Amino acid sequence: MLPSRFRGHWRAAIVKISKTKVDALKPKKSDYIIQDDVVPGFGVRIYPSGIKTYIFQYRRKHRTRRIALGKHGVLTPHTARQKAVELWNQVNNGDDPSANRYALDAGTTVAKLCKLYLEEGCDHKKPSTIEIDKGRILRHINPLLGKEIVADVTTDDVTKFMKDIIAGKTAADVRTKSRGRARVQGGKGTASRTVGLLGGIFTFAIRKGIRSDNPVRTVQKPKDNKRERFLSDGELNALLQLLNAPEDLPLNFNVAPAIKMLLFTGCRKSEILNLKWKYLDFKNRYILLPDSKTGDKKIPLNQPAIDVLNSVSKVSKNPYVFVGTGGGHFTALQKGWEKIRENLDMQDVRIHDLRHSFASILAGSGHSLVMIGKLLGHSDPKTTQIYAHLVDKQQLDASDQVGAYLSTIGKNIDE
Questions:
Q1: DSSP state letter for 127
Q2: Of the listed ranges 23-27, 56-60, 134-138, 208-212, the one predicted with least confidence
Q3: Separation between Cα atoms, residue 309 and residue 320, nearest integer Å
Q4: How far apart are the C-alpha atoms of 122 and 114, rounded to whole Å?
Q5: Neighbouring C-alpha atoms within 13 Å toward the C-beta of 142
Q6: Contact, 133 vs 197, CB < 8 A?
Q7: The model scores a pTM over 0.85
Q8: Distance between CA 85 and CA 64 in Å, rounded?
């Protein structure tokens, strides 16, 4: 039996945590925790996405405190256990490491809260999502609310914050070291997604005990009207003709095959650019992604996609299908895409619209929303609902065909 200060809501077996055992843990519909049988309070939390995070958990003043130590794969079990031992010693000596570490109180600023949120409140998110959160905090939340005291922020403050983003107050074109340039946009979509993140940050503040309510909860967010742009048959024909003869346009050798793969599979851009040869199962015609946006993902390979992959040459000591000039994977797809859409006079078409077009073809062929969701790898059925009107139209057309057929039979009988 653990000392009371280390007891918490553990929902799985108590085992000696090792790399082999953590690697073997499978995600479930909801997150769960296993506890180490050596160090009190040390455990690993497994999320539905497949992310595994080492944690240290203890109780202080009748409340459970949980500190994220780091993700499995970034930390080894040995390093995570060492961190847990240090925290265990602090708790055993009567200290409160969570409070000592961050000293959050009613005077904490929003900027400081955001910093803690990124360090401790995002252990369930994928690295790519955390990077997006960092950008929204850096470009929108900190400039507008960063100096405000967390306890003093009101619903009116959040409403003004949202309106300022919509009006473009935080819009900018910023030079960066890693990507060269970051174009920060305003508008309703940006405002809606950033306010959503802010709501999560204030929920985190409630868990930390520095607020009892969430000022974002009653704010009416604008509809995040993500565009649904589908390529017409004529546009698809023109695009494929160009991709089949890329020498007519000066493009990097990766551009044409990478875009074809997006079009033929419905994959996300990151899934194709990060594709490794070891993820390909040509025998069973699948891509097996170990860590996509929605966790493990199995993507069927149709024959055109296989033909594209067979046309790509492997580069020695580079594991990626689409290789970068300086090693690693190819990163300049957007630059090539801008040349293509300018040549085809399709400036309003984004790379992500190729994924929408893949889905629209499925819907037009009579496939259900369930099938579309499976092929796109949607973890939430609600995400697939943006294609519902396409399926509805296909069903209406089918009903019209039945009606026309029966009407013809009726006329023949009358005659």
A1: H
A2: 208-212
A3: 12
A4: 11
A5: 12
A6: yes
A7: no
A8: 18
How is residue 293 written in tokens? Answer: 């946006």
Domain boundaries 233-397, corresponding CATH code: 1.10.443.10
Going through 282-398 in order, the beta strands assigned E by DSSP cover: 286-292, 295-300
Q: What is the dihedral of CA 266, 221, 195, 133, to 10 degrees?
A: 0
Identify the architecture of domain 4-101 in CATH.
2-Layer Sandwich (3.30)
Q: Quick one: CA torsion of 352, 331, 234, 305, rounded to 10 degrees?
A: -90
The string of pLDDT tens digits covering residues 13-33 is 677 889 999 988 888 888 889
DSSP secondary structure letter of residue 124: T
- Sequence-distant (6+) residues with CB within 8 A of 1 are none
User: Is 233-397 in the same CATH topology as 110-207?
Assistant: no
Helices of type H across 186-302 = 188-207, 233-244, 255-265, 269-273
Token representation of residue 204:
């985190």
CATH architecture of 110-207: Orthogonal Bundle (1.10)
- CA–CA dist 229, 350 (Å, integer): 8
Residues with Cβ within 8 Å of residue 33, at least 6 apart in sequence: 9, 10, 11, 12, 43, 44, 45, 46, 55, 57
Write out pLDDT tens, residues 162-187.
999 999 888 775 555 545 455 666 78
As beta bridge partners, residue 280 has 287
Domain ranges of the chain: 4-101, 110-207, 233-397
Task: Give the span between the Cα atoms of 281 and 92, in whole angstroms.
Answer: 51
